[in-house]
Amino acid sequence: MQSSGNSSGKCRVLLDAMGGDFAPLNEIKGAISAESDDKNLEVWLAGDKSKIISVMKENNLSFDISRIVDASQVVTMSDPPVQAYKEKQDSSLAVGLRFVKNGNADAFVSAGNTGAVMTFSVLIFRKIKGVDRPTIGTLMPCVGGYCTIFDAGASVDSKAHHLAEYAVLGSIYAEEMLNIKNPRVGVLSVGEEESKGNEVSKKAREMIKTLGLNFLGNVEGKDILKGNVDVTVCDGFTGNIVLKFAEGVNYLLKHLIKEYADESIFKKIKVGLFKSSLKAIFSKLNYENYGGVPLLGVDGITIIGHGSSSPLAIKNMVLKAAEAHRKELLQKLAGAIASRNIDHNEGNPE
Amino acid sequence: MQSSGNSSGKCRVLLDAMGGDFAPLNEIKGAISAESDDKNLEVWLAGDKSKIISVMKENNLSFDISRIVDASQVVTMSDPPVQAYKEKQDSSLAVGLRFVKNGNADAFVSAGNTGAVMTFSVLIFRKIKGVDRPTIGTLMPCVGGYCTIFDAGASVDSKAHHLAEYAVLGSIYAEEMLNIKNPRVGVLSVGEEESKGNEVSKKAREMIKTLGLNFLGNVEGKDILKGNVDVTVCDGFTGNIVLKFAEGVNYLLKHLIKEYADESIFKKIKVGLFKSSLKAIFSKLNYENYGGVPLLGVDGITIIGHGSSSPLAIKNMVLKAAEAHRKELLQKLAGAIASRNIDHNEGNPE
Q1: Which of A5, A193, A201, A313 has a CB 3.0–4.6 Å from the CB of A197, allowing a cystine?
Q2: Chain A residues within 8 A of B266 when measuring between CB atoms
Q3: Which chain A residues touch B159 with a CB distance below 8 Å?
């Protein structure tokens, strides 16, 4: 676990300035905006120092350049993660994570290549003791608020004991970061009955039963949106498909509204009059507004954002990372894992 | 394959009158309504004859009682399918399917226990030659129209060669029943790149490549709703979760609209004025309106409906079954499978 001591007393978040599609501009803007919102926050940028300074000048932005950690390389969205790790040790991603690992900052944030952020985080931060497979969560709007899904794509071949880990990690995350008391945990399956599910989900249910969580057993796809579960656990293949399907909902809604408006001039006017209401109603479905998802199970705080993150999204990611540090999320996750005995062999002899 | 000869020259659909949650009332109403829409259609009902007649009388409904095939038992929604097959050979489900199998009707429709309808259909109709695993499809609204997902829950442990079968069967279904010329087939995965996916999806992609379909390779969850694919193939665990998640979207939208309206009297009035438009815009998302999904790969036409099917949904199911018969869907599916060599051993020695 990283040291949290620093002389300024402020929470220090290291932001990968070269990560997102609009880097470093959105990153600089997000950093400035986060510091303006939270006076006890200090943002550090990792990236090409001369590039960052020139973008600052071009856009008339003011940021303390002594808090830019120079890095000569950039991991691109199309870089294969493991290869990038071998070849790009001076990337903003690697430099930034090591900066946190060495205790110079408290948390790490990137809107870069998700697979690479995950791989680099695991290799540099290492895993929390007792965790076999770190997990990326996603936040999902639902009736009554928001819920989470773990895993949303860190692994495509999760095993039952990984789902058990997701249940513990996700439960702590929901409690600490979403302020959900005693979060309800469910295993995503094809029916509520115990007999329903595939091999992994059925075995996971048996394992999670014993972990002392607020466990509902199986939940179905519809339970996620109906607000019937706070922490949905599933393999990362299924979770990623559900997440991306959900991202498509907003797109389809916009299309259906446009299709309706195009039917007649009268309908177009009606939609025009109701436009601001539609926007307000559906704003909750815009996944790009959420500003980052956690990578849990590594021994450091990593928040990962969408490549297309806006300055607002970047700001929210930075604030979330700071919140995670202040709430000692990492220590709580480690404690929750340490106090449980999740059998990595799933009952099979070693 | 069933004989399609009959003396009246009409297309004959056998409807399980005891299947749905509102059986037999909705079934009787749906049957009457289907016959009224299509004069070349003859609906037969399987079920408890005296019960059906008494419900007809109570509701002042007129249906030719010589077309009721008596069956003393009912398969309930909670009956385990295999056990029900052993113990309920005189159920409306078994009697109805045998009636079709014996050539007395051309297609079978039920809004009953989905698992039981599938199990009974496989055991009574048997499988199309060359098919290892029949599949239930689902229809999904998307930008530009509708698309399909196979499998939507017939199997929880689909293997790669099953997905290859789904691709062939689904492609024919989309072409014949949804009038999509040269339908685009995709394997549901976590990224477009060839390297993305789990073991089953990656192997399936390699197999489907060779089948001479209009094959896109991998598609992601968002591609379904964006209208980027006509036939999405995936294991039934994933497909069922996506289907049920999609069912939850409508529920969440209603909630978001209500939440907005409850914010102020002004907003409530606005929503009230726009109510009929909202209903029109989102009607496409109401999965209960679709009226049934196909079970493909069995040697007979089976259309399965939602337990809560309305008379309109029942009517649509019956009409869809008749359409499938008239379009010789079964012969086309069998031909498409026979003309391809899908390796049930997936390259492994037997």
Answers
A1: A201
A2: none
A3: none
